Amino acid sequence: MSAHPFAGAHQVREKPTQRKFRNRALGALLQLGLLLFTSVSFAQAIDPLPFKDHAQEVRFQALTRELRCLVCQNENLADSNADLARDLRHEVFDLMQQGKSDDEIKQYLVDRYSDFVLYDPPVKSSTVLLWFGPLAILLAGAVVVVVTVRRRGRAAPVAMQDEKPNDEGDDW
Amino acid sequence: MSRLLPFFGFLLLVALFGFGIWWNTQHDQREVPSPLINKPAPAFVLPKLDDPSQTVSRDNLLGKPYLINVFASWCIACGEEHPVLMTQGKSIGVPIVGYNYKDAPEDAKAWLTKHGNPYDMVIADQEGRTAIDFGVYGAPESFLVDGKGVIRYKRIGPLTPEVIEKELKPAIAALAKEPAP
Q1: Nearest CA in chain B to A117
Q2: d(CA B112, CA B79)
Q3: How close B63 gets to chain A, by Cα (Å)?
Q4: pTM confidence score
Q5: Do B35 and A113 contact (CB within 8 A), yes or no?
């Protein structure tokens, strides 16, 4: 038994890989054409959904970008091609049609998949270190700098009186 | 002394780095702990795999503990888990409900015919919608539900003889000590 009891063993259903363009030149031409004829500047969802209007689509894009795909955990729901991500996008879409707010939709997913689905972890006792740890380290660094500078400020006049070069190796 | 300070700082970083590597060998970074532990299992109504005209709901299963095992014929890790369920499934002392996840019914039936059926009952969720309520994000996954319909334990990944002995059986034994609902 390896140290990873199921590394790579817990699985998701994969889509069959999409067929590549046989003719790359044709593919490039097609892409250029798409670029020229598409005025929408943001990335489109992988599967088209029947949005009521453009505003709703923008809201959907923004929301799914803040949610993590559970399967490919470095991808957000908007970009992921995983089967589960598609299901969850549909779920988010349906909840939107029911008039749920962004917060309600996030809570719906957190209830099922924990805070892990949020790219922005909420501030609570278990995440205090995550949120304020870097600030604490920065402050500790500042204290070290201040103490060092003060000590050196006191030491410097003495060195000048003695007219000796300061070669104690403390100047790192 | 102050000359050595950067060296100690370096050693500290090395120690931290080493700890990180060690920690990662002991933990699975991909595992998402379920927020549903000690919460009521989501209400569900799903058809039986062998007879879709019959449905099973959460409330049908109330009264005594059972294990839900999420599986699919396309899932290779389920194939590794399957022999364990075949040999040890009866020894855990609670019924096992097979939860066929995002699978074609004929594929699932063929798979169970070929490898054997360790389940007391198999329910099918072809769309995977109910699975979202359960927080399923892959297969295999297993949920221990008590007689009151509360999820008490979740295993993400295959049940191995080790996991059954060290985690599942103690969890079931703890349920047996509680007064009956």
Answers
A1: B32
A2: 10
A3: 24
A4: 0.74
A5: yes
Q: Could you tell me if B62 and B126 lie in one domain?
A: yes
Cβ contacts (< 8 Å) between A122 and chain B: which residues? none
| Domain tally, chain B | 2
ipTM of predicted complex: 0.83
The range of the structural domain enclosing residue B121 comes to 32-177
In tens digits, what is the pLDDT along chain B, a chain of 181 residues?
Answer: 678 989 999 999 999 999 999 998 888 777 888 899 999 999 999 999 999 999 999 999 999 999 999 999 999 999 999 999 999 999 999 999 999 999 999 999 999 999 999 999 999 999 999 999 999 998 999 999 999 999 999 999 999 999 999 999 999 999 988 876 5
Choosing among 3.40.50.2300, 2.60.40.10, 1.10.8.640, 3.10.20.30, the CATH entry for A16-117 is 1.10.8.640
Q: Where are the domains of chain A?
A: 16-117, 125-155
